[in-house]
Specification:
By secondary structure, the protein is an all-beta fold. It has a single domain (3-760), classed as Maltoporin, Chain A, CATH 2.40.170. A hairpin with a 5-residue loop joins β37 (694-704) and β38. The termini are far apart.
Length: 761
C-alpha cells in the first residue's frame, strides 16, 4: 500500500469517528478511576508550566515513571514504541550512543562535527552530544517527547523535537527508600537502589544507584568475548533546599560508567577470500579490533526557582557536563585488521539559562535567555591492512550559542486562546579538521608507539569559523469546543546552525568551499489537531496532522575513493550538503479507551510521507538519488492495561502490546541489496541492509502488595523473537573500501524475560 493510500485510508477511518474527540496520548493518563468513571489526566511541563496534556497545543507524548516500570521499559529507546513517527535507537557500533529522529528529522552520524536534530534534556538541561545518551530507566518521574521544532519555551533550539527525561524530586517530609532486584534472560542481573532523607524541615538529600549486567546476546567467535552484553554502573546524588515558601534550590550530580564490550555487528557477506562465511546468529561477530570499550559521562547542575509574587517566577539553571569514549570499531567485522578503527571521543559543555515566568488572569508566558559553550573532539585511525595504509582523522569543534526567547498565551475568551512566541539564536562554530596518511598499520599521531611512516597531510584546517543566526517565530490558537474538547492550529519555524564536516578532504577540494562549511537548515512546520475526552473521560486521545517544509536540509554522504587512480579505493570522503527542498506531512493518533474501570486499550498511529524534492548539483536536480532516513511510513501500536484487585487487596496490573514499524531506509541512499555482477569483489551480490517491516510483542504483569511495600513483576519483551535491524555499515556498494569492505548490520534485543522484586519504605 502506498503512503498516499495509507493516508487516505486512515483519513476515511477518522471521518467515521471524527465526532469522538481524542486528546491524551496513549499511556499518558493514569489508569486509575476517580469520581466514578472519570480518569485523572497526566500533567506535563512542555510549556514550562504544569498543564493538563489535553490543554497543550503541542504534539507531546508523556509517560510516567510508574507506567515505564509496569511495561518493563529498559532504557530510553523504549519510548520509540509509544511515540508516533519517532525513531529512537542505539547507534551503529555502539552500546550507548543515541540516534533520534522525529517526523523525519534527526542525526545519523554521531561524530563530533554534527549537531543532533532532536534535543535530549535531563531535568531541563540540554545534552549536546549523543554519546552516553542511551539513558537507563531508573528513578524517573516521567519522559516527555515533543514533536516538531522547539525553541520559544526553553533551552537549546532543536529543529525536529525534544525528549525530556525528568527524574524524581525528593521527599522533604519523610525518609524514603526503594530497592529493586531483577534477574532475566542471558543472565541479566540488575540492582537499583534509591532513597532520600530530610535533614531538616527545609533541606533533604537523596540519590540513586543502579548496576546493570547481562551476558551477550551473541559471541565474538574470534575472541570468545560476549557480544551485545551489558556492564553499566550509574548513579545520581541530589540535595534540595526550601529556605522559604517561595524559594527552591536543587543541586544534582550524575555519573554513568559503561564498560560493555565493543559492538562490531553482524557481517552479511562472507569475506572476499571465502574463508569466513556469514555467521548463523545475527548477534555473533568475528571482529578482531578488540572488545575493550569504555564510555563515561557525568554532570553537575544547580537549579533555583524563586516565586517573586503571585504573578512572577524567576528560574536559573546552571549546568556542566562532560563525557569520554574509548572504543574499537570494526567496520568489516572480520579478524584481520582491515578497516579497523580505534577511536577516542571527548566532549564538555557549560550552559546557563534564565527564565522569567508570568501568570495572570488571562495572560501567561515566559521570557528566557540561554547560553551554551560546548566542545566536542576526538581522533581515530582507519587501518587498511590490505593496502598497508592508515588514515588518521582528528578534529575539534567548539559551539557557542547565545539565545533569547519569549512565548505568551492570551485567553481572548473563556474558550479561545492565542499564543505567540519567538526566538533569536546566534551560533558561533570554531573547528579544526586534521586528516593524514600513514604507511603502516596505525598512525603515530593516534599512538606515538606506532612505527608507521608519515606520508602526507590531506586536511589541515585550523580555526575554521562560521556564525549562523536566525529569528524563528511560533504562533498557535486553541479553541475549546466544550469543557473536554479542544482544537488547535499552530505554526512554528525551526533552525539548526551549520558547521564543518569533520571528515572534510582539503586536498580534494581545490575550490576551498569545504573550509566554508555547510550552512544552516530551516523548517516551516504547520499543524492542526484535536484533543479531548468524551464518555466521562472513558475515551481520551489526540489527532494531529502536520506539514513540514524544509529548506537547505543537511545531508551527509560517505563513500570510498581511489585517490591515486590505481583502481582500488584507498580512502573515503564525506560530503555534507544542504538539500534544496524537502517536504514531510503526516498524521498522528494517540488514544486510550477505558472499556471498564479495570480494562484500558491504547492505540498509537503514525503515518508520514517524507520526500526530498530538490537537491541541485551543477544545476541538475538529483533528489531522486536520495531518500529520507530512519523514517518508517507507518508506525502502529495496540496495547492494553488490566488493573484489578486480587488476593486480599493486592493490586495486579497486566499490560501487553503489539508494536509495528514499516520497513525504512537507514541511510540517505536506499539499500535494498545489490545484484550479482554489481561488485567485482562479491560477484554473487548481497542482501538488503535496510530493515524490513516488523512487529514486536510485549507482555508484563506486576503484583503489588496491599501496603504497597512489595511488588513482584514479570516482563516479556519481543516475545516472538523477531530479528530486526536498527543500524548498519555499507562500504561495499556503490564503492568499496578495504579488501572486504563493510557490510554489517546491528539488531534490536531478542526475546527476553525478566523477573523482579521491589521493596519500598
Amino acid at each position: 500500500m502506498t503512503i498516499r493510500r495509507k493516508l487516505l485510508t486512515t483519513a476515511a477511518l477518522l471521518t467515521s469517528v471524527s465526532m469522538l474527540p481524542m486528546a491524551a496520548p496513549a499511556m499518558a493518563q493514569e489508569a486509575q478511576a476517580s469520581d466514578g468513571d472519570s480518569r485523572e489526566i497526566i500533567t506535563v511541563t512542555a510549556r514550562r508550566r504544569e498543564e493538563s496534556i489535553l490543554d497543550v497545543p503541542i504534539s507531546v507524548t508523556a509517560v510516567s515513571g510508574e507506567q515505564l516500570e509496569q511495561t518493563g521499559a529498559v532504557d530510553i529507546t523504549a519510548i520509540q514504541r509509544l511515540t508516533p513517527n519517532a525513531t529512537i535507537e542505539v547507534a551503529r557500533g555502539s552500546n550507548s550512543t543515541l540516534i533520534a529522529f522525529i517526523r523525519g528529522v534527526g542525526q545519523q552520524d554521531p561524530l563530533w562535527g554534527f549537531e543532533p536534530g532532536v534535543g535530549l534534556y535531563i531535568d531541563d538541561i540540554y545534552v549536546a552530544r549523543p554519546q552516553g545518551a542511551i539513558l537507563d530507566i531508573f528513578d524517573v518521574q516521567s519522559i516527555e517527547v515533543l514533536r516538531g521544532p522547539q525553541g520559544t519555551l526553553y533551552g537549546r533550539n532543536t529543529i525536529g523535537g525534544a525528549i525530556k527525561y525528568v527524574t524524581n524530586r525528593l521527599n522533604t517530609d519523610d525518609p524514603e527508600f526503594q530497592a529493586r532486584v531483577a534477574y532475566g534472560s542471558y543472565n541479566q542481573f540488575d540492582t537499583i537502589l534509591s532513597g532520600s532523607i530530610p535533614l531538616s524541615e527545609t533541606f533533604a538529600i537523596g540519590g540513586a544507584l543502579a548496576r546493570y549486567t547481562r551476558d551477550g546476546f551473541g559471541e565474538n567467535l574470534l575472541t570468545g568475548a560476549d557480544h551485545y552484553n551489558k556492564d553499566i554502573l550509574a548513579g545520581r546524588l541530589s540535595a534540595e533546599w526550601t529556605p522559604t515558601d517561595n524559594l527552591f534550590v536543587r543541586l544534582s550530580y550524575d555519573r554513568t560508567e559503561d564498560d560493555s564490550n565493543a559492538k562490531h555487528g553482524h557481517r552479511l557477506l562472507p569475506d572476499a577470500a571465502g574463508v569466513f562465511p556469514v555467521t548463523s546468529d545475527v548477534f555473533d561477530t568475528r571482529g578482531g579490533a578488540g572488545d575493550a570499550n569504555s564510555v563515561e559521562t557525568e554532570g553537575w547542575s544547580a537549579s533555583v526557582e524563586w516565586d517573586i509574587n503571585e504573578a512572577f517566577t524567576f528560574k536559573s539553571i546552571t549546568a556542566y557536563r562532560e563525557g569520554s569514549t574509548v572504543t574499537p570499531i570494526d567496520f568489516d567485522a572480520l579478524p584481520q585488521p582491515d578497516f579497523d578503527v580505534p577511536a577516542n571521543y571527548a566532549d564538555d559543555q557549560f550552559s546557563q539559562e534564565f527564565q522569567l515566568l508570568y501568570s495572570g488572569d488571562r495572560l501567561s508566558g515566559i521570557v528566557g535567555a540561554y547560553y551554551l559553550d560546548g566542545n566536542a573532539n576526538g581522533d581515530f585511525d582507519v587501518i587498511l591492512s590490505s593496502l598497508g595504509l592508515t588514515i588518521y582523522q582528528a578534529g575539534d569543534q567548539t559551539k557557542e550559542n547565545i539565545s533569547v526567547y519569549a512565548d505568551f498565551t492570551y485567553d481572548v475568551t473563556d474558550r479561545l486562546s492565542v499564543s505567540a512566541g519567538a526566538r533569536y539564536t546566534e551560533d558561533e562554530t570554531v573547528a579544526d579538521v586534521t586528516r593524514e596518511v600513514w604507511l603502516g598499520l596505525g598512525s603515530g599521531s593516534f599512538d606515538a608507539s606506532n612505527t608507521s611512516i608519515f606520508l602526507a597531510t590531506q586536511t589541515g584546517y585550523q580555526g575554521l569559523t562560521r556564525t549562523d543566526d536566525a529569528f524563528t517565530p511560533r504562533l498557535s490558537a486553541t479553541y475549546a469546543l466544550n469543557d473536554t474538547v479542544n482544537v488547535y492550529a499552530s505554526y512554528s519555524q525551526g533552525f539548526k546552525a551549520g558547521g564543518f564536516d569533520p571528515r572534510a578532504r582539503q586536498d580534494l577540494d581545490p575550490t576551498g568551499l569545504s573550509a566554508e562549511g555547510f550552512g544552516p537548515e530551516f523548517v516551516d512546520s504547520y499543524e492542526i489537531g484535536l484533543k479531548g475526552s468524551v464518555l466521562d473521560n472513558r475515551l481520551v486521545g489526540s489527532i494531529a496532522y502536520f506539514l513540514a517544509d524544509y529548506s537547505d536540509q543537511q545531508i551527509t554522504v560517505q563513500q570510498g575513493v581511489d585517490s591515486d587512480n590505481d583502481g582500488v579505493n584507498d580512502t573515503f570522503v564525506s560530503s555534507v550538503f544542504n538539500a534544496g527542498e524537502s517536504e514531510y506531512n503526516g498524521l498522528e493518533i494517540e488514544a486510550s479507551l477505558f472499556l471498564t474501570d479495570e480494562f484500558q486499550i491504547d492505540w498509537v498511529l503514525g503515518v508520514i510521507d517524507a520526500e526530498i524534492n530538490e537537491i541541485l548539483s551543477g544545476g541538475v536536480n538529483i533528489a531522486s538519488n536520495f531518500v529520507t532516513q530512519n523514517t518508517p511510513e507507518l508506525t502502529n501500536r495496540f496495547g492494553f492495561t488490566y488493573n484489578t484487585t486480587v488476593l486480599d487487596e493486592h493490586n495486579l496490573v497486566v499490560t501487553g502490546s503489539a508494536s509495528y514499524r514499516d520497513g525504512y531506509n537507514l541511510f540517505n541512499v536506499e539499500n535494498s541489496g545489490f545484484a550479482a555482477g554489481t561488485s567485482a569483489v562479491f560477484p554473487a551480490g548481497g542482501p538488503a541492509l535496510d530493515p524490513d517491516s516488523y512487529t514486536l510483542f510485549d507482555l508484563s504483569a506486576v503484583l503489588t502488595s496491599a501496603s504497597e511495600r512489595w511488588s513482584f513483576a514479570l516482563h516479556g519483551r519481543n516475545l516472538s523473537d523477531e530479528n530486526y535491524r536498527v543500524a548498519a555499515y555499507n562500504f561495499v556498494t556503490p564503492s568499496q573500501l578495504g579488501a572486504d569492505g563493510a557490510y554489517s548490520a546491528f539488531y534490536g534485543a531478542p526475546r527476553t524475560v525478566t523477573a523482579s522484586v521491589t521493596f519500598r519504605y
